[in-house]
Amino acid sequence: MTPTTEQKRATFHALHRQGCFVLPNPWDAGSARMLQGLGFKALASTSSGHAWSLGQPDGSISREMTLEHLRSLVAATDLPVNADFESGFGLGPQEVAESVRMAVDTGVAGLSIEDSSGDAANPLRSIEEAVARLRAARAAIDEAGGGTLLVGRAENFFVGRPDLDDTIARLKAYAEAGADCLYAPGIRSAAQIRAVVAAVAPKPVNLLIGGASEWSLQDAEAMGVRRISVGGALARAAWGGFLHAARSIAETGRFDAFAQATPGAELNGFFQGKD
Predict the structure, then answer these.
(1) Which of 90, 94, 153, 245 could crosslink 114 through cysteines, CB 3.0-4.6 Å?
(2) Within 10 A of 28 (CB to CB), how many other CB atoms are there?
(3) Using 50, 70 and 90 to split pLDDT, how confident is the model at 1?
(4) Which domains can be identified in the chain, with CATH numbers?
(5) What does the pLDDT look like over 104-146, one tens digit per residue?
């Protein structure tokens, strides 16, 4: 039986209460269905992976296109889906609340709001501004029934401002503003990870592992991390395979790279009856 939106949201909340789980990031319906078939318990969208699939750079996709993408992911899988909702698609808190209401209506089980500004000279919003935007998101979710999990993101390490103290101050403020889960993409060392986990406890922490890493799922759990996402890494891995094969043909006229391709019969067999 297909779970309801409410059941997916309840399941998603439960996953954050104990242990540690991997939240892989599909970029289309096919990758979402494949990840469900591999046994993952929940999924998250990737703004970068989605943008690249449309031939665009990350950060260039409109709210309307993002919402349509979220609807397609939610429809493609029985798993809870967490939305990479960038900075909330709004100039101010009121517009963020409006966008969040639209995101909730897509059926996502969670959504993240980041504090990046898009301004290269001042890439982070002030804590006060970011808190106001998160509070608006929290209010919009609560007005819709409160089931959608809200993630507060501190982008310091992603935008060239690797200040751990400021990162922690932001995450604590976002927790107080109503974020259910906290996320500082770009932290890597055990000391950084443990400091973030301790600062916002007992609220859960998301750890980004977007490349080859010394940390395993078990290592992250031992440090107190509740969930691991991979951002655009799976999309980049797919692009890597594509580019390796295409460059081989373009540069050498050889087709040897196809030896690593997944057989069509295997893919057809997996997707048979998935509609």
Answers:
(1) 153
(2) 16
(3) confident
(4) 5-232 (3.20.20.60)
(5) 999 999 999 999 999 999 999 999 999 999 999 999 999 999 9
The whole-angstrom separation of Cα 140 and Cα 177 is 13
Angle (CA) 24 27 28, round 5°:
120
**Three-state SS at 13:** helix
Active site residue: 28, 58, 166, 219, which one?
58
| Distance, C-alpha 122 to centroid of its chain | 23
Q: Alpha helices of 16-119 — where are they, by DSSP H?
A: 29-37, 47-53, 63-76, 93-105
Q: Is 58 a catalytic residue?
A: yes
CA–CA dist 169, 172 (Å, integer): 5
pLDDT tens per residue, range 33-47: 999 999 999 999 999
Residue with tokens 């889960």: 181
> What do you get for the CA distance between the two ends of the chain, in Å?
14
Tokens of 250: 């373009």
